[in-house]
């Protein structure tokens, strides 16, 4: 297997690059996959080498070949200046905020933000002297009206992972960059395969790699990609200063997930849309929240900027008791009830975001449920839900 120079590698199409990236059999005794290299200490042959830190790897927290293999694949997908990894998706949200914000700064955060990120913004950032305010996810170019002289960054997430509200990322980027304000985005829903965040100007793009990258519900990992070398340097300095590292086993498993991510999402996207469309036809359902559906208020934005959809969406039921919802969900055989998503298995989860939103209150009248569609046969999933709706009606 001949090793391609970087310029030739860059000419390959994305699918091919995802198969090749971070893989050099010469480095792994000829085996296809990179070796899992564990280690803290690196031994230097001589004192001179040690004093000059003359070695490809210098210490476990400063780089590791298994993690580098993952970073190569991540860079290929994200298309930015550099990627960093950490031990959870939540940390991938909080660390870049720590890296770019200073005391006295103001941060704007979408009201549809992933709730634990919101928790960090409410609990930790004020203690660091950072002022946080929440904005309507649909604000678009009007974000400019919320900028203060000390606004340093805007946090975006599109679509939000409970209500699936879309955001006009390009409009927010234009307004922010006109004021030297950074745009950060939690791009977990679309993944870089379906939303090329850096191409649209997002400065720092975050993934809960726990979801579709890892893809098998067996790894916790976060990734952070920087659009420019300057930002990458700033993030990297924060990573080094904080001592952030991941286990090589997790790097290996995430890399293995990434090799098949195209294939999984190619199956899960139409399955998600088909299930969402099916829910729309159900008499028990008031509304389906999925930006790939033409009926969704975010559909035009999704169609304009996204090239695909993942398989996570939500429904609002017509008003019914939580007891009836429990009867529906508890009896499901194929849908597990649990947080997280992006694995090969289907999930269903009740949620209520009305209690904690501050900038806007979604006007739900009935209970809301989030679904993740896995790789099961869709007719089996429909039959399971059909029986669930029968239990819901019987308990209503
Ligand atoms: C799950 C999730 C995270 C956090 O990922 P963890 O690995 O579970 O910490 C962040 N953002 C979004 C949108 C998520 O769904």
Folded structure, characterized:
Helices cover 37% and strands 15% of the residues. The mean pLDDT is 96. It is α/β, with parallel strands linked by helices and 396 residues long. The structure holds pyridoxal-5'-phosphate. Residues 88-90, 93, 114, 161, 186, 188, 208, 210, 220, 222, 340 line the site of pyridoxal-5'-phosphate. It is an enzyme of class 4 (lyase).
SSE blueprint:
Layout: H1 6-11, H2 14-20, H3 47-51, H4 65-78, E1 82-86, H5 89-100, E2 106-110, H6 115-123, E3 131-135, E4 151-157, H7 169-177, E5 182-186, H8 191-194, E6 204-208, E7 222-226, H9 229-242, H10 248-259, H11 261-280, E8 285-289, H12 299-305, E9 312-317, H13 322-330, E10 347-351, E11 368-372, H14 378-395
Parallel strand pairs: 2-3, 2-4, 4-5, 5-6
Antiparallel strand pairs: 1-7, 6-7, 8-9, 9-11, 10-11
Helix pairs in contact: 4-10, 5-9, 13-14
The structure holds pyridoxal-5'-phosphate.
Family: Belongs to the trans-sulfuration enzymes family.
Protein name: Cystathionine beta-lyase
EC number: 4.4.1.8
Q: What's the quick description here?
A:
This protein is an alpha/beta fold.
The tally of beta strands, per DSSP, is 11
CATH architecture descriptor name of the largest domain: 3-Layer(aba) Sandwich
Spatial separation of the terminal alpha carbons: 63 Å
- Mean pLDDT score, rounded? 96
Q: Note poorly predicted spans.
A: none
The CATH class of the largest domain, by name, is Alpha Beta
Annotation field: number of helices: 14
| Small molecules in complex | pyridoxal-5'-phosphate
Order of helices and strands: HHHHEHEHEEHEHEEHHHEHEHEEH
The CATH topology of the largest domain turns out to be Aspartate Aminotransferase, domain 2
Helicity level, as a percent range? 25-40%
Main structural class: alpha/beta
For the biggest sheet, the summary is: 7 strands, mixed
How much of the residues is beta strand, in percent? 5-15%
Identify the strand order in the major beta sheet: 1-7-6-5-4-2-3
**Bulk shape:** globular
Radius of gyration: 22 Å
Family: Belongs to the trans-sulfuration enzymes family.
Cofactor: pyridoxal 5'-phosphate
Modified residues (N6-(pyridoxal phosphate)lysine): 211
Keywords: Lyase, Pyridoxal phosphate
């Amino acid at each position: 297997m001949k090793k391609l120079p970087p310029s030739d590698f860059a000419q390959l199409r994305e699918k091919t690059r995802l198969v090749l990236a971070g893989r050099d059999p010469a480095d792994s005794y000829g085996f296809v996959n990179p070796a899992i290299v564990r280690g803290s200490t690196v031994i230097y042959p001589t004192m001179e080498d040690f004093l000059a830190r003359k070695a490809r790897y210098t210490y476990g927290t400063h780089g590791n070949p298994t993690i580098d293999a993952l970073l190569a694949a991540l860079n290929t997908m994200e298309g930015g200046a550099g990627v960093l990894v950490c031990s959870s998706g939540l940390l991938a949200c909080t660390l870049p905020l720590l890296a770019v914000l200073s005391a006295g700064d103001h941060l704007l955060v979408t009201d549809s933000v992933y709730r634990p990120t919101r928790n960090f913004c409410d609990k930790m950032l004020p203690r660091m002297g950072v002022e946080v305010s929440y904005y309507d996810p649909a604000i678009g170019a009007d974000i400019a009206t919320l900028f203060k002289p000390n606004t340093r960054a805007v946090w975006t997430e599109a679509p939000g992972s409970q209500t699936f509200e879309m955001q006009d990322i390009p409009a927010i980027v234009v307004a922010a960059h006109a004021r030297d304000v950074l745009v950060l985005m939690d791009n977990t829903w679309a993944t870089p395969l379906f939303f090329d965040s850096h191409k649209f100007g997002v400065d720092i793009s975050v993934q809960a790699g726990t979801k579709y990258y890892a893809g098998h519900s067996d790894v916790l990992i976060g990734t952070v990609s920087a659009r420019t070398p300057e930002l990458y340097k700033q993030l990297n300095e924060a990573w080094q200063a904080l001592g952030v590292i991941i286990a090589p086993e997790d790097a290996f498993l995430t890399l293995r997930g990434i090799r098949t991510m195209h294939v999984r999402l190619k199956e899960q996207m139409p399955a998600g849309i088909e299930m969402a469309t099916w829910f729309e036809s159900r008499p028990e359902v008031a509304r389906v929240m999925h930006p790939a559906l033409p009926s969704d208020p975010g559909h035009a934005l999704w169609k304009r900027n996204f090239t695909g959809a993942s398989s996570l969406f939500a429904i609002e039921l017509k008003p019914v008791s939580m007891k009836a919802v429990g009867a529906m969900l508890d009896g499901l055989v194929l849908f597990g009830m649990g947080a997280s998503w992006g694995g090969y298995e289907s999930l269903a989860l009740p949620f209520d975001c009305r209690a904690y939103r501050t900038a806007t209150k979604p006007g739900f009248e009935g209970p809301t449920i989030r679904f993740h569609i896995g790789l099961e046969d869709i007719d089996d999933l429909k039959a399971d839900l059909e029986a669930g709706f029968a239990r819901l009606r019987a308990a209503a």
